[in-house]
Amino acid sequence: MYRNLVMGKIQLKFNSRTIHGGQAPDEAYGAVMPPIYQTSTYAQSTPGGHKGYEYSRSANPTRTALENSLASIENGNYGLAFGSGLAAIDAVIKLLSPGDEVISTSDLYGGSYRIFKKIFEKFGIVFHFVGMQDTGEIAKHISSKTKLIWVETPTNPMMNIIDIMSVSQLARKHRILLAVDNTFATPYLQLPLDLGADIVMHSATKYLGGHSDVVLGALVVRDKELADQLYFIQNASGAVCGPMDSFLVLRGIKTLHVRMQRHCENGRAVAEYLVNHPKIEKVFWPGFPEHPNHEVAKSQMKDFGGMISFVPKGGNYQDAIKIVEKLQLFTLAESLGGVESLAGHPASMTHASIPKEEREKSGVVDALIRLSVGIEDKEDLIEDLRQAIE
Ligand SMILES: C=C(NCc1c(COP(=O)(O)O)cnc(C)c1O)C(=O)O
Question: Taken in order 69, 96, 152, 342, is the CA torsion positive or negative?
């Protein structure tokens, strides 16, 4: 049970669990960092006579250390690691059967929309995309066929906030699984399992890895039966991550708490600069009291993160492109959550797989710019934005 991780007689708090959670010095030589077991197979003294590992798709000691760490930081009992965030999502949807229905937030990562619509609809899974800022809207779409509610909060890229506890109460009432993509917030800011979710998912490519040097996905659950179903899918489908990537995310997690503090501090400074800028039309950041669900954000988040989206005044496609091309410290690139600040143009990059009329319904207009505010000096970040927007 990783929730109550104890070292000796000390019940560890979150920051300590990012460093020690799920890990102990290696039994062989006392290595403090879990070794990278770069092996696909393990000697057996007789068929089945192994030391708990027989083939690295099924289990690998470095991946096990990462899965234990993931369970520990999300207050779960079981962690699972995959080759990417979308591979983790793939595993969750494979819990379902043809004819089952999923209610998903209508503002979500473009790749998540794509795997739902372009991959799993072909196998008979029905997806409804709903504005989830009001839990009542979700309830209107529940039927006897609804088996999963898929939440991102904050959402990518409109920064909508969804009330996890409220949605979990609705899901539980109808015996529907609730999965929360916790990529933008991370467990430093938000603990979906504590708020009633059944499954937490991460693109660990982002804040958990934290250095833009690995692609990896994660799931964390508390229920053993659900964990066993997901471990079966993980092994049977085989979309696992390797030991080197597992090591990189293990190392990233160790500084998650200090990095998130700086992401939040810099995020606030950038959001406040933009919202007071005469050439900026609208800024989307859950830390503003004017944010539609700011009170929900305050109730379920420790702080408001480093992800921000904004629209330049009178903005169109060209205005947005001109700004992102002029940025020098913010790097124009896909992805988010690394130590370096990144800028993106969702309409033509991360959300290009969503049809224009569909994405514009949730506010992803051609002029929208998304920022992943890193941990550089905030004065430099603001100067970069000033010269790009002027
Ligand atoms: C690459 C980007 N997003 C990946 C992502 C994913 C997919 O994770 P991958 O590790 O890229 O497969 C899932 N959920 C959220 C909220 C995400 O943001 C991006 O938004 O730039």
Answer: positive
Distance (Å) from CA 203 to ligand 1 centroid: 6
Beta carbons of 307 and 154 less than 8 angstroms apart:
yes
**Which residue in the block uniquely carries the two structure tokens 């077991």?**
37
> pLDDT (tens digit, 9 = 90+) per residue, 87-104?
999 999 999 999 999 999
Q: What are the sequence ranges of the domains in the chain?
A: 14-251, 256-389
This prediction has a pTM of 0.97
| H-run or E-run covering 149 | strand 146-152
For the domain 256-389, what is the CATH code? 3.90.1150.10
Whether cis (ω within 30° of 0) applies to the bond prior to 292 is no
Residue of 112, 203, 241, 350 best suited for mutating to test ligand 1, as the one with most atoms within 8 Å of CB: 203
67-82 burial: b if 16+ Cβ within 10 Å, else e: bbbbbbbbbbbbbbbb
- What is the value of ipTM here, to two decimals? 1.00
- Residue 205 Cβ < 6 Å to ligand 1: yes
The correct answer on CATH 3.40.640.10 for the domain covering 14-251 is: yes
